[in-house]
Sequence to fold (140 residues):
Amino acid sequence: MRLVLFLILLTAPFAGLHAQQPQSAIKALLQKQTDSWNQGDLDAFMSTYWKSDSLIFIGKRGPTYGWQATLDNYKRSYPDTAAMGKLNFNLLEMKALAADTWFVVGKWHLTRTIGDLEGHFSLLIKKIKGNWKIIADHSS
Fold:
């Protein structure tokens, strides 16, 4: 019995580490988005999204379904690096909905010579085949 108690006490400080791993991975995913955007690389930016026809992106024009349609919309809306500007995210909330699914809320800001843009976003992020991917994005 003492051995069991000893093992529980020994491993207790590490119990929180497992819960933090998804948060770190999701923050890294958002950092990859930021870096890719700021390099003008929409294809790399889109690699953080689920490459599926079931991906949903909701913007000011309503929902867009599918990875390719979302990429096409980004390319139309941001045809060059002047239009893209420099992206910055401010995370406001991260909540686990399940071990493999997280809800993220934040603010985005584009610093641009042609005029800044900003708004809020909510993301549904899911671990798919070992990788965290955005499966739903509502940005306004």
Notes: Confidence is low (pLDDT under 50) at residues 3-19. The radius of gyration is 18 Å. Strands lie at 56-59, 62-65, 86-98, 101-111, 117-128, 131-139.
